TrEMBL record:
Pfam families referenced in this protein's UniProt entry, alphabetically: Beta-prop_EML, HELP
Organism of derivation: Pleuronectes platessa (European plaice)
InterPro entries in the record: Beta-prop_EML_1st, HELP, WD40/YVTN_repeat-like_dom_sf, WD40_repeat_dom_sf, WD40_rpt, WD_repeat_EMAP
Domain EML-like first beta-propeller: start-end pairs: 53-237
Protein's name according to its UniProt entry: EML-like first beta-propeller domain-containing protein
Record's keyword terms, sorted: Repeat, WD repeat
Stored SMART domains: WD40
């Protein structure tokens, strides 16, 4: 009779390979213990680089897509995707859940950020309104919510010098928020003529209401209040640039001809003179391409004209002409006579 008891062996997660970089940003941090915290699929990973060991947080039931680290660098918040996504705050030492935040976002939690004293947590959802929410995370209580933007939000951060001010950015926008009680009020950034209205991928707040943001084309935008005051062009990567390219060609031609002539002459009462000449001509053309290139980019580019830099063209032609001259002569007949003395 077969044994129907459950097997005594159990599966244990030993190692996770990889890193979730797709559609995620700002999702790897150093902890207070100099370990690295990140996520793969639905697992939070704490990696000890010195001992080459991993610890795992398994509090999520779907893929994690956002991560923020607390100012104490021990606790972290992670947000997941799903129909009813939630946020877990957990301890990177004990690998235990501290708090779970639910029932606000749908589809997923795109961004997370703790404020400077660690008492509040901002989150952004993947719902149609890209809802922005501020939490008293220790009590699991919502302090304020607001419509984030009509398009995707990529990053959110708190002003470390003003506890009621936070900034969000995304597809062709940046917004500056003020939290007052239960009200969360936004003001859109004014690009003006200082920079292009474009997608902003990341943002960092500094003192005196200065904000630094990274744009899609590699520029860094500097803001004071809600106004763009400076653009650092092509700070990262190659900026879109205008350029002019010109290709010129110089050619030299040489030609040689060779003629072979024959003639015949027949002398009769009617004289015929025939002149025949065959000529072979060879032409050789050598062309060299040169290029000039100018660009508004601060970088140096090298280009080559899309043709052979030097090429030679040779042509050969053969021609024959014949000329015939005919002359009529008068023929005299005479009879020799003897000479008498």
């Amino acid at each position: 009779m077969s044994d129907k008891t459950a097997p005594r062996c159990q599966l244990r997660l030993e190692w996770i390979y990889g890193y979730r970089g797709h559609q995620c940003r700002n999702n790897l941090f150093y902890t207070a213990g100099k370990e690295v915290v990140y996520f793969v699929a639905g697992v939070g990973v704490v990696y000890n680089t010195r001992e080459h060991t991993q610890k795992f947080y398994l509090g999520h039931n779907d893929d994690i897509i956002s991560l923020a680290i607390h100012p104490d660098k021990v606790q972290v918040a992670t947000g997941q995707v799903g129909k009813d996504p939630y946020i877990c705050i957990w301890d990177t030492y004990a690998m235990q859940t501290v708090s779970i935040l639910r029932d606000v976002h749908t589809h997923g939690v795109a961004c997370l950020a703790f404020n400077s004293d660690g008492q509040r947590l901002a989150s952004v959802g993947l719902d149609a309104k890209n809802t922005v929410c501020v939490w008293d995370w220790r009590r699991g209580r919502v302090l304020a919510t607001a419509t984030g933007h009509s398009d995707r939000i990529f990053d959110v951060t708190w002003d470390p010098f003003q506890s009621s001010r936070l900034v969000s950015c995304g597809v062709k926008h940046i917004k500056f928020w003020i939290l007052c009680g239960n009200a969360l009020t936004p003001k859109r950034g004014i690009f003006g003529k200082t920079g292009d209205l474009q997608t902003i991928l990341c943002v960092c707040a500094a003192k005196e209401e200065l904000t630094y943001s990274g744009a899609l084309n590699g520029d860094v935008y500097v803001w004071r209040g809600v106004t763009l005051i400076r653009t650092v062009q092509a700070a990262h990567g190659v900026r879109h640039h205008t350029s002019t390219s010109t290709c010129t060609s110089t050619s030299t031609c040489t030609s040689t001809s060779t003629c072979t002539c024959t003639s015949t002459f027949t002398f009769t009462c009617t004289s015929t003179f025939t002149f025949t000449c065959t000529c072979t001509s060879t032409s050789t053309s050598t062309s060299t391409l040169t290029s000039t290139f100018t660009s508004t980019s601060p970088f140096t580019f090298y280009i080559t004209c899309h043709a052979l830099p030097t090429f030679t063209f040779t042509s050969t032609s053969t021609s024959t002409f014949t000329t015939t001259f005919t002359s009529n002569f008068t023929c005299f007949s005479f009879t020799p006579r003897s000479i008498q003395t």
